Amino acid sequence: MFGQGSRRTAGIAIAAAVAVAAAGCTASSPSGGGGASGGAGNAEKANLTYWYWGESDAPGANNWMKARIADYQKLHPGVKIKLVPQSTDTLIGAFTTAAQTKSGPDIATQWATIPVLSQAWSGAVAPVSDYVPENQRSQWIGTQENTDKGKLYAVPLYVIGVPLAYNKALFAKANITDPPRTFDDLLGDCRKLKAAGVTPIGMGNKDGYFGAWFFSNFGKQNLDSTEELKKAIIGKADITDPKYTGFYEPMHQLKSNGCLNDDIASLTLDQGMAKFGSGQAAMAWGTDGIVNGWAQKLGADKVGITRTPKWGTGKLADVYNTTQSSSAFITSWSQNKKAAAQFLLFLHEPKNLKSWYEATGIFPADKQFQPSSIKDDLGRQMWDLDSSDGAVWLENYLPPSVDGDGNLAAGQVITSGGSVAEAVDTFRKAVEKWRSQNPVEVKNYTAWAAQ
Amino acid sequence: MWRQVLLIAVTIAALAPLSFMLLTSLKTPQDYAEHPLGLPSSPTLSNYVSALTEVPTLRWAVNSLAVTVVAVLVSSTIAALAAYAVAFGRFRGRSIVLSSAIGFIMVPPVVLLLPMFVVMVNLHLVNRLWSVMLFYSCLLVPFAMFFLVNFFQSVPRELIEASVMDGAGPLRTLRSVVLPLSRPALVTIAVVNAVWAWNELLVALVFLQDESQRTLMAGLTLLQGRYVSNQPLVLSVAVLSIVPVAVFYLFTQRSFVRGLTAGMGK
Amino acid sequence: MWPYLFVLPAVVAMGFGFVFPLVSVVRNSLYAGTFYQIQYVGLGNFRALVDDDVFVHSLTNNLRLLLTVPVMTVLALLIAVVLHDGVRAWRVHRSAVFLPYILPAAGIGLAFGALLQFNGALNQALRVLHLGFLAQDWLGSPRLAIWSVGGVVVWQQLGFGVVVFLAALLSLPNEVVEAARVDGASWWQIQTQVQIPQLRSTIEFFVVTEAITVLSWVFTYVYVVTGGGPANSSSVMEFYIWRNGFAQGSVGLANAAAVVVLVLAAVLIVVYLRLRRAPENPGGVL
Known about the structure:
The complex is a heterotrimer.
Chain A: H1 3-6, H2 19-22, E1 46-52, H3 61-75, E2 79-85, H4 91-100, E3 107-111, H5 114-121, E4 125-126, H6 134-137, E5 147-148, E6 151-152, E7 155-156, E8 158-161, E9 164-167, H7 168-173, H8 183-195, E10 199-201, H9 209-218, H10 226-234, H11 242-245, H12 248-256, H13 269-277, E11 281-285, H14 288-298, E12 303-306, E13 322-323, E14 326-331, H15 337-346, H16 350-360, E15 363-364, H17 377-386, H18 400-415, H19 420-437, H20 439-449
Parallel strand pairs in A: 1-2, 10-11
Antiparallel strand pairs in A: 3-14, 4-14, 5-6, 7-14, 8-13, 8-15, 9-11, 9-12
Helix pairs in contact in A: 9-18, 10-20, 18-19
Chain B: H1 2-25, H2 29-34, H3 46-53, H4 57-88, H5 94-104, H6 109-122, H7 129-152, H8 157-165, H9 170-181, H10 183-199, H11 202-207, H12 216-226, H13 231-260
Helix pairs in contact in B: 1-13, 3-13, 4-7, 4-10, 4-12, 5-7, 7-10, 8-9, 10-13, 12-13
Chain C: H1 2-28, E1 31-32, E2 39-40, H2 44-51, H3 53-66, H4 68-84, H5 90-102, H6 105-115, H7 121-128, H8 145-170, H9 174-182, H10 187-198, H11 200-216, H12 219-226, H13 237-247, H14 251-276
Antiparallel strand pairs in C: 1-2
């Protein structure tokens, strides 16, 4: 499922534990390091460890990756790659802890933008642009999400969009012919659906992800660019201004008008979305992969997708919500950086892009991917949306603790019946906490924001 | 009488959630969605079949079993040796060792977890069952030691003295005199510690991330994300995770009770 | 010589598993920053904890859970006393009540997570019994979530209390009770003035043990049943440590929080040690 869909928080990994010093004990020995000497390593012989995450976004990913590793090892007999799938809950913390001891994997995965960049700012990442020349990465999609000071830090593997799915049959039952284009349309459709005895929207917020997605889908709509949000995060603008947190108002309206399922607060995102999949709710947001699953279950002719209804007045209200979600990068302590880069490059070969799509139904993050591979209507619609210009996933721009204690928590305030003011306050406190506790991070974030 | 009523009520309260688990696991997802309460309209074992074939339940269970057996064996051995020394030996630091052990019994693992994780990363043991086996073995020592010391001290001194006079060294005496007499105590610590290890979640969750390496409890929590819309399937795996303990309990009740009431004041 | 050898493995195990991490945690709590720029911040992390609403709320949640201890104690006492009276099939009841205690909290938690949903089995049952007004959003309400967790804790821990109190009751001499009965004391009087007072040290032991439990052994309940939510309203200190340390990467805060848990647990552990009274052994035979 979409990165943020199952993840706890994304964010700036921080703080060293002097566990390093205390644990001082064993000198950290980076894993990998076949017969190579020196940092870059010999591309011919290497042992690589790859901390991988992707199955939650794209079911089938783990098996696909294992198969690609097997292929690669056949082509490069001197290279051994060990795949270590990571868990969503501890993706950030486990790597941060490993980074402190400068040991662990050669290739690691983090969610795009802040989670990757904060590791980069801490010195844990070897920029992939140092090992892969420009002409070999020009086809990659979404590289702007992980670029800082002219260097590309991580490799995108796939792109995910988050459309609003609607059940055409249930819409027909309520005499609605078109999917909602604006927020007012959405409210109107809710009323009609309720009158027809149908739950308008089925989502779950026990784990906070409905709120997180809402932030990305609606929170950007009053902004003209992501730079504006960065300003508010570092304190140059007031986060409580409706420009940044005004979207809690429409969220509250959805709740108070009964547009959301009544048990949204005690169901996780997956549980809530399942209502759509079983035909019990007329609308739900989902990732490309999940929507594909719904189409299979309900029948492709019954499922339609559309952009998130327009609510705000900023330029970003017109762009779609896509992201590479998770990104792969080479660690700074790896003894086999070149070999690692070669493998990541291998994953972008056209035949591998094709097999990825076939295995997971998720689009690879590469313009070399042929849309002609897409066999179904829904898929083509998704590709059009996903490859549209300027797409942004706003949640990526939040430090992890702001995401967890602010974004996710504030959304839960609303779905549990709280007020907009309380939600905004929760968000504000999380931002202020981050600012006061992470001076180094704030400095890095500010420098990045100023570019 | 009101006493019967009370007991029946309490028993129902204790068993109701468990029967809910069981009944739900026998329903199809459709059935459960329509009737979360009540008996299954057409009971089915298909969830259990899925639990064993589509979900790595067996793999997880084997992992849990391996971890439990190793941790209990290792910690019991370490504890038996140490308890013998504490009970029958004279050495400097004796009371510190004993008091520390007793104090450590109640230290919550969460406090120890961050540095331990770093150590495991350094030792390249993260995502390997060894990491959990190692840490559990350490965590189980204090209780086992305390319990055995208590018990060893009730062994009649004459038996020990007789063995010594026969020329037996401490190891021989431990093996041939004390241990055979201590069977109930050994069974008790094995039972209590095994249940603890089988049930443990937090450490397993942090050390074992790869799906195939998880213990049953850590694997269960994965189900919250993956199959959550199929509650009957999730609960069938949960039932499978508690059945071994429940059965184990039925056979070892007395040991358990003994373990829990050890060394209490009157 | 031999005692040192025998005791060595245990010392190594406890040193590695307990002493080393405890020392590390205390030491690490005084540092912050990225690993390229580690700074000694003294008590800075602790000050940050105090400023963090979520931590304070987590701490007060543990204190709220302490309120379940008297509930558990009274209920367990009552049940134990009734069982002790020799009601028919008392062993069956005892087994049933004790069963939840040994079951894995992770498995049980999943069941409660389903049971307590707004449209889940519990609320459905209440609605069917025309008690629908009692149906709450047990997991989705910020006010109630922690008490739902508390409910699950009580459900599991009760059996332990029953077994412990029952065992203690069984070891009491009968004469005093007989004498009181002969004197014409009512059942209630016998319980409150004769039996229970004799259980004082057992009750103390149970209360302290459960206090330690709700203070620092409830991670699984929170993680599985509510996930700390909604909006961190059911977070407890262990959960805070796990979340900040492993999910969000705020390791300095997590270490500081661990120290706080340690200090609180240490106070109770010392009390617990006094109650258990380490066995005396003036010297060895060998």
